[in-house]
Every structure is written in structure tokens, then in C-alpha cells.
Write a structure and sequence with these properties.
Bound molecules: zinc ion
Number of domains: 1
CATH architecture: 3-Layer(aba) Sandwich
Structural class: alpha/beta
Distance between the termini: 34 Å
Number of strands: 9
CATH topology: Rossmann fold
CATH superfamily: NAD(P)-binding Rossmann-like Domain
Order of helices and strands: EHEHHEHEHEEHHEHHHEEHH
Shape: globular
């Protein structure tokens, strides 16, 4: 209960994770996100109300507001930082945590969190959804993956969950907004832009929270033995036992080096 837990990104997955932490009695929670409520993300952000669109409420404010009502710890301290992880204050807030949830979709912040998991010995629970649709916009396959990274386990690069090339493109500002839905034309993208991802996000958030409990309690019978991969069709969860990074992994080589915040932001 005294673990300081950070939730980076308070969108569809992060807002559900924050609520779970609140109800589980976690006493110290740090929320980091610079994003605000708009009409397009209203349906997928837990506790956001239509009025929050008019007010352009910060996502962290909404999660913090809900936690003050739902928390079960006698004393709870929520620090809501309305800034990007990729700012000195954002990094500093993340480094104050004992465990981090990576609920961001862009490659660069995920890359930074991947490094922090090793360089600063702060385990990161991460997940992602990928859907492929046919020309009519109907689902071909929808998959999601959930994994925890820390020394002794494969990092996001070695898992194949994050590409170094995508992190580089994002850093150079050459990456379009990432979209979990692949195979759409521009017109279809517009048409399905308002799609509701809440059911997928609930599953990802649920398994991320279970992996978190497994991580902090060292109970694999709650969190499982390693990275999980769920295929919505036929409806199967696969798991592989955790293994260390590849021998030549530079992230693993940075283990316990506590590299400076300025280096994380390069
Ligand atoms: Zn690695």
C-alpha cells in the first residue's frame, strides 16, 4: 500500500488504472499527462463528463478528482502533474515512483520509460492494442499485449513491443499520430475516428493491474509468469516465461547507471 505508483498517460487505459489503484488502497499516486479532454476522447476517459470538454479539463485533474472520492486508503496523496513526461518536471515525477504504468501511445515516452526501468531500477508495466481491419472497416484481428519490464526481464525493444526506429522518428517529429487501427484509408480513418475503444482498454488495464500486483507482491499466481499476448479471436491469452534482454541490448547495459534526466530527454 505504501508503494509510490506513477501512471504516465491518463487516457483510456491510464484512467482505469488510476481508479483501480485508488480502490486498492494505494496511498501515493503520481499522475503525469499534459493532454486535455476533447470531444474525441470523452467516451474513452473514465470519469470525464461533457462539461469537461467545454472546460478543456486536464486528464490528470479528472483522475485526481475521482480518486478523492473513491480511495480506500485512510490517507491518500495524489500528485497530478499537468505536463508531458518529456519535460524535466515530468521525468522528475516519474523518477519519484517505485513502479510506473506506461499508458502512453507515442514511441518516445515509451522509450524513455523503457530506459528508466533499467537505468533507475523502476519497473514499468506497459501494454498496447493493435487491430487490423478489412476494406469495409470490419475487424480482421485485434490483439493486445501486456508486459512488465525491469532488470532480469526483456525490455520493450527485446520484446519487440517497441521499435528503436519508431522512437527515432518520433524524436525527430517525423511520426504521424500513432493509431492502433491498421489498414484504413484516410477517408475511413476519418469515419472511424470516433470508434469506441473502451472495452479493449478495460481488458488491457485489468491485466496491467494484475501484473502490477504480481510485481510488488512477488506473487506470480496473481500476475502470471511473464509477457502476455491476447488474441481477441479466438479469444486466447498466451504467456511466455520472463527472460533477460539480448546480450547486446544497450538498455540492459544501462542497468543501475542512474543516467541524468537531461540524457533521458535527448
Ligand atoms: Zn533489451
Amino acid at each position: 500500500m505504501r508503494t509510490t505508483v506513477g501512471v504516465i498517460g491518463l487516457g483510456s487505459v491510464g484512467s482505469l488504472v488510476a481508479e483501480a489503484l485508488s480502490r486498492m488502497g494505494i496511498q501515493h499516486v503520481i499522475l503525469v499527462d499534459h493532454d486535455r479532454i476533447e470531444e474525441r476522447n470523452l467516451d474513452r476517459t473514465l470519469h470525464a463528463e461533457p462539461n469537461d470538454v467545454d472546460l478543456a479539463s486536464a486528464k490528470v485533474e479528472i483522475a485526481a478528482r475521482a480518486m478523492t472520492a473513491s480511495h480506500t486508503a485512510a490517507d491518500v496523496e495524489v500528485f497530478a502533474l499537468d505536463q508531458s513526461l518529456l519535460s524535466p518536471d515530468g521525468i522528475a515525477a516519474a523518477l519519484d515512483c517505485d513502479v510506473l504504468f506506461s499508458c502512453v501511445d507515442r514511441p518516445m515516452p515509451r522509450g524513455v520509460l523503457n530506459t528508466i526501468a533499467y537505468s533507475h531500477l523502476i519497473p514499468v508495466v506497459d501494454g498496447g492494442i493493435l487491430a487490423r481491419v478489412n476494406s469495409l472497416g470490419l475487424p480482421l484481428h485485434i490483439d493486445w499485449r501486456i508486459h512488465s519490464v525491469s532488470p532480469g526481464r526483456r525490455c520493450l525493444y527485446c520484446l519487440g513491443a517497441l521499435l528503436r526506429s519508431d522512437v527515432s522518428l518520433d524524436r525527430e517529429g517525423k511520426l504521424d499520430d500513432p493509431d492502433y487501427l491498421r489498414g484504413l484509408t484516410e477517408a475511413q480513418r476519418e469515419k472511424y475516428g470516433r470508434r469506441n475503444v473502451f472495452p479493449f482498454s478495460m481488458s488491457v488495464a485489468g491485466h496491467e493491474v494484475l501484473q502490477f500486483v504480481g510485481l510488488v507482491t512477488a506473487m506470480p499466481r496473481v500476475g502470471g509468469i511473464g509477457p502476455q499476448h491476447y488474441a481477441a479471436y479466438p479469444g486466447r491469452m498466451d504467456v511466455v516465461a520472463s527472460e533477460p534482454c539480448d546480450d547486446d541490448c544497450e538498455v540492459n547495459a544501462a542497468t543501475a547507471t542512474a543516467i541524468a534526466v537531461s540524457e533521458l530527454l535527448i
